[in-house]
Amino acid sequence: MERIYKLHKTIKHGEEEITAITVREPTIDEILKLGYPYNLDTDSGAMVHNPIVILKYLSVLTGLPPSTIKQMDIFDFDSVRWIIVGFFKPKASTNEDAALSA
User: pTM of the prediction?
Assistant: First the structure.
């Protein structure tokens, strides 16, 4: 699965001006290498996003170097982090019921 995000502020990669980025779904190997893009707060159980890991995922999943990703404005980075975190949300599936009853 891929998601295309139209940037509100253009970024540059070399001489190329980038107005949108394509973010693909991570592989299991990438998850094992990079870890999860969030931690769980031990007191509240709330999900706390890790911007450093999110930056690493953005670089890997878009093919752009971190130096290019760091040109994004805060609004774009914040919006795209939800795409990354969204890849880790459970998906509704009939397999879920089967796994629970096994």
Answer: 0.83
